[in-house]
């Protein structure tokens, strides 16, 4: 049993791997070797930074086709993290607009520059720090995690999925309800960083390791 953290050069690869090692006895590897990725029992698609760079590195490392193939087949569980979530959508507004992997219908949008809360107080962009996540639909990865639990975020762009059935978690920031947990079949993806989210984040990773779609 092997969990492969897909290494295309972007994301908290080793932090994610260490967090996974903390919750499982399964072998965890950080790899860009196509044979190792295909042979793994579970996959993690991380991401950090600008989405143009992430998509570009996925192309440069010749892993885009493999990731698209694995998403299409849905033969094994895959967890997307941060920009690894955003890349699953059709399109992102970031970097003057860029097409993504198109696995799930929807858009990645930028938080408005002049973000305000309900009292009119200015909110910072990027959205950085702890915020509660509301479980919009039940999912095995929420097992043992309280409703409206706090997770750790760092992002200036947010997901707006096109289909309610694909939305499993939301976070309110200002007047925007961001879709911070999405998925379909054997794929689940989150905007927050479970590897930085203390007990709740580790529990989500443990649930992923035990998940049988």
Examine the coordinates and then state which fold CATH places here, giving the name of the CATH topology. Answer: Rossmann fold
Q: What is the N-to-C order of secondary-structure elements (H for helix, E for strand)?
A: EHEHEHHEHEEEEEEEEEH
Give the C-alpha Rg: 16 Å
Question: Order of strands in the sheet with the most strands?
Answer: 2-1-3-4-13-12-11-8-9
Largest sheet features:
9 strands, mixed
Distance between the termini: 16 Å
Q: How many strands?
A: 13
Question: Low-confidence segments, ≥5 residues, pLDDT <50?
Answer: none
Number of helices: 6
How would you describe this structure to a colleague?
The chain is an alpha/beta fold and 213 residues long. It has a single domain (2-210), classed as Rossmann fold (3-Layer(aba) Sandwich), CATH 3.40.50.880. It is 25% helix and 32% strand. It contains six helices and 13 strands. It has helices spanning 13-23, 34-39, 51-60, 64-73, 83-86, 198-210; strands at residues 2-6, 27-31, 42-45, 78-81, 91-92, 98-99, 106-110, 127-135, 149-155, 157-161, 167-173, 176-184, 187-190. It has a nine-stranded mixed beta sheet. Strands 6-5-7-10 form a four-stranded mixed beta sheet, with no helix packed on it. Strand 1 (2-6), helix 1 and strand 2 form a beta-alpha-beta unit. Helix 1 (13-23) crosses helix 6 (198-210). The protein is globular. The two termini are 16 Å apart. This is Imidazole glycerol phosphate synthase subunit HisH. Heterodimer of HisH and HisF. Its main location: cytoplasm. One of its GO terms (biological process) is L-histidine biosynthetic process.
């Amino acid at each position: 049993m092997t969990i492969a953290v897909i290494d295309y050069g972007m994301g908290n690869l080793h932090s994610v791997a260490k967090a996974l090692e903390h919750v499982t006895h399964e072998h965890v590897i950080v790899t860009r070797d196509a044979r190792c990725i295909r042979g793994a029992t579970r996959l993690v698609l991380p991401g950090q930074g600008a989405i143009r760079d992430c998509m570009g590195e996925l192309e440069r490392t010749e892993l885009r086709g493999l990731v698209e193939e694995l998403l299409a087949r849905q033969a094994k569980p895959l967890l997307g993290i941060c920009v690894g979530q955003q890349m699953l959508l059709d399109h992102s507004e970031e970097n003057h607009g860029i097409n993504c992997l198109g696995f799930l219908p929807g858009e990645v949008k930028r938080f408005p520059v002049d973000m305000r809360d309900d009292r009119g107080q200015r909110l910072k962009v990027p959205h950085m720090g702890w915020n509660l996540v509301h479980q919009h639909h039940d999912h095995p990865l929420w097992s043992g995690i309280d409703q409206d639990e706090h997770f750790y975020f760092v992002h200036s762009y947010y997901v707006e999925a096109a289909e309610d059935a694909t939305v499993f978690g939301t976070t309110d920031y200002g007047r925007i309800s961001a879709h911070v947990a999405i998925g379909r079949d054997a794929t689940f993806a989150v905007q927050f960083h479970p590897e930085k989210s203390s007990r709740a984040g580790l529990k989500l990773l443990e649930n992923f390791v035990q998940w049988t779609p």
